[in-house]
Every structure is written in structure tokens, then in C-alpha cells.
Design brief:
The chain has about 375 residues and is an all-alpha fold. The protein has a domain of about 180 residues: Farnesyl Diphosphate Synthase, CATH 1.10.600.10. About 65% of the residues lie in helices and about 5% in strands. It is built from 15 helices and three strands. The chain has a three-stranded antiparallel β-sheet with strand order 1-2-3, with helices on one face. The termini are far apart. About 45% of the residues are buried.
């Protein structure tokens, strides 16, 4: 076994042995990445804690603040197992990549907090931490701690340099994407510009972690590049997945923050000049008006627009599956990656019936 509790099953799929006290010794098949996470989450948490402890005994206040930030930020989807699955696709064993799962947890905890601050243009409360303490904790969590995670004894010395270089380049690319997002001008929005932003702020971190998993698995350069390309596409898909979730949740934070999403870019790009002008005005007003946010949402849920949006999701999904097919590897773990792609590329939005809103069809020729 690599990670405690993970071993290859005899029925043609990964098997996981529960480590919980109530189910000790129970062996169940792993059919999704969520199943895998249930068995390795404790190991990932141990790696994260060990990384925090590597700051040393004098970093008492920093360690406390980072721990508070990590405790506050819980992820709805267990994506930290992605590098473990990529490593297993190369080697059959997810265990050695557990420190990379810790890197994923640390980086995204930091990135999500900083992104919340940027979106809200104010303070974000994190438990008992003051806003300035939480910001400092986020900086430490996202910068030195991913490097410290690579000092895990599970990481061979021979690959630490390459892994560190990948972390640094990934961080720079992600920062570039975030800055492009902050500076995005909705007036110039189109599919290509938004895809470039998504490739940086979401594609780059996933490309970083999949490439790191391939490096740690000892893959040749060509395969590392292909895994990086897969992570890039997957990251874009996951950003679009998050965009849909924001609408489905009813929070509409993207509209309140003035964020230029891919769906909004599609609506603007496919509109007539008069429709586009109305939608731009409504998008600006939506930042302070809940009723206008509802109107803009109605435009985004137009049936014909969603059909085109879904077609473009399918193109991205097929590209990700094609990359996995070309890569090959352990079929059991490739199946988990295929499941992740299918989940990320779901079309979850449904048309809003009889919508009439700025930029939508109003029955007039324009």
C-alpha cells in the first residue's frame, strides 16, 4: 500500500480500506474521486498539519492564524485528491502524492480568501481572526507553506527542485490571471478574453498540480507537458462549473461583484449592438440592485444562449477526455479522472421560461 488504506482491488477497480473506528477493516470499491477522498482525507490532513509545524516553534502566532484560516475554509468538492489520482494513473499508487494534495489545500485556501477580499472590496471575517490577521495568514498559507509542504519525507530529494519550480511558475501564472480578472473591462468582453483569464486564475493552479504529480511519478517531459495541458483544461471547466453554481445558489456574487463570466461574455458577444448596450447598462446596475441582478440572470438563462453555452462545454469536455485517452495509464485511476471531467462539465443551468430582460429577445428587429 502507498497511502494507508489504499490498495489495488481484484475486481478491476481501486479498493479502499476504511480507517474509521466503526468500519475498521471494511473494504469497499472506489468508483469516484469522492470515494477516494474518504479514505485518504486523514492522511492529507496530517500532511497539512505537518507542513504547518515546519514553520518552527517560534512561529506560534503565525501557526495559530494559519490554523484558524484552514479550519474556516472548507471545500465543497474534494479536489485535493487530483494529484494523487494523476500519480496513480502513472504508477498505480496514489499515496506518494499526498504532500501534493496538501499543496493543493494550502494554495486554494489562500487563493479563495484573497479572491473573496478582492471581490468584496472590503473585509472577510474568518472566525476569531481580525481581517488583517486573516490576510497575513492567507499570504503565509499560499506562499511559503506550499514550498514547506515539499519538504515532506515522502518527497524524494531528486524531484524537489523541479516541484518547487513548478509551484513558483504556477503561482505567477495564477496571479496573472487574477490581475487580468480584476482589470477586465466588461465592454470588451468576449469568449477569448474570458478564457484567457480563466486559463490563468483557475487553469494554471490545476496545471501546476497535475504537472507536479507527473514529475513526482517520474514521467518523461512529454507526459508532464500533457498532464499540464489536462490540468489547464480541467481548471477552465471547473471555473465554469463554479460560475453555474453561483447562479444556482441564488447568491449571484458574480453579478454583485461585476465579474465578467464566460456566460456573460457569450451573451454580450452574441447580442445585437442595441441588446449589448442594454445588457452592459444592466450589468453595471446589477452590482447594487438585486432586482436588476434578477433581470440580467433572466438574460443569461435564455434557452438559445444556454444551448450554445452547452455546446462549448462539450468541446472542452471532449478535449479533456481526448488528453486522458492519449495519456493512457492505469485504467482504474483514469476512470476516476474521467468522472471528474464529467462532473466539471455538467450543464446544470436550465432556461428561464418567458424571460424578458435587457439584452434578451423583445420581438423587435434591431
Amino acid at each position: 500500500m502507498g497511502v494507508s488504506g489504499i490498495r489495488s482491488g481484484s475486481i478491476g477497480r481501486p479498493m479502499i480500506e476504511s480507517s474509521s473506528a466503526s468500519a475498521k477493516g471494511t473494504v469497499v470499491p472506489v468508483t469516484t474521486y469522492v470515494d477516494l477522498h474518504r479514505g485518504v482525507s486523514a492522511d492529507i490532513e496530517r500532511e497539512v498539519r505537518a507542513t504547518v509545524e515546519r514553520m518552527g516553534p517560534s512561529a506560534t502566532a503565525v501557526r495559530s492564524a494559519v490554523t484558524g484560516l484552514l479550519r474556516h475554509r472548507e471545500f465543497a468538492y474534494p479536489l485535493p485528491v487530483l494529484p494523487m489520482i494523476v500519480h496513480a494513473a502513472e504508477t498505480g499508487d496514489p499515496g506518494p502524492a499526498t504532500p501534493l494534495a496538501a499543496v493543493h489545500v494550502l494554495w486554494w485556501t489562500s487563493a479563495c480568501h484573497i479572491d473573496d477580499l478582492a471581490d468584496g472590496q472590503g473585509t472577510v471575517h474568518v472566525g476569531d481572526l481580525r481581517p488583517d490577521e486573516a490576510l497575513l495568514a492567507a499570504v503565509v498559507t499560499g506562499l511559503p507553506l506550499p514550498i514547506l509542504a515539499l519538504r515532506s519525507p515522502r518527497i524524494p530529494e531528486a524531484v524537489r527542485g523541479a516541484l518547487t519550480a513548478e509551484v513558483v511558475s504556477g503561482m505567477v501564472a495564477a496571479a496573472e490571471g487574477q490581475l487580468r480578472d480584476l482589470r477586465a473591462d466588461v465592454v470588451d468582453a468576449d469568449r477569448e478574453r474570458v478564457t484567457t483569464v480563466y486559463r490563468g486564475k483557475s487553469g494554471a493552479p490545476f496545471a501546476m498540480i497535475t504537472a507536479m504529480a507527473a514529475i513526482m511519478a517520474g514521467a518523461p517531459t512529454e507526459r508532464i507537458d500533457r498532464w499540464r495541458a489536462f490540468g489547464d483544461v480541467f481548471g477552465i471547466l471547473w471555473q465554469i462549473f463554479n460560475d453555474q453554481e453561483d447562479i444556482l445558489s441564488g447568491r449571484h456574487e458574480d453579478l454583485a461583484n461585476g465579474t465578467v463570466t464566460y456566460l456573460l461574455a457569450c451573451a454580450l458577444q452574441d447580442s445585437s449592438p442595441a441588446q449589448r448596450a442594454r445588457l452592459l447598462r444592466a450589468h453595471a446596475a446589477a452590482q447594487t440592485s438585486s432586482s436588476t441582478r434578477a433581470e440580467v440572470t433572466a438574460v443569461l438563462l435564455d434557452a438559445s444562449l444556454l444551448r450554445r453555452y452547452e455546446e462549448e462545454l462539450v468541446v472542452l469536455r471532449d478535449k479533456a477526455h481526448k488528453l486522458l485517452c492519449e495519456l493512457g495509464g492505469d485504467g482504474e485511476y483514469l476512470a476516476l479522472l474521467q468522472h471528474m471531467v464529467d462532473e466539471a462539465s455538467q450543464m446544470r443551468l436550465e432556461p428561464m421560461p418567458n424571460n424578458s430582460a435587457p439584452g434578451g429577445s423583445d420581438g423587435q428587429n434591431e
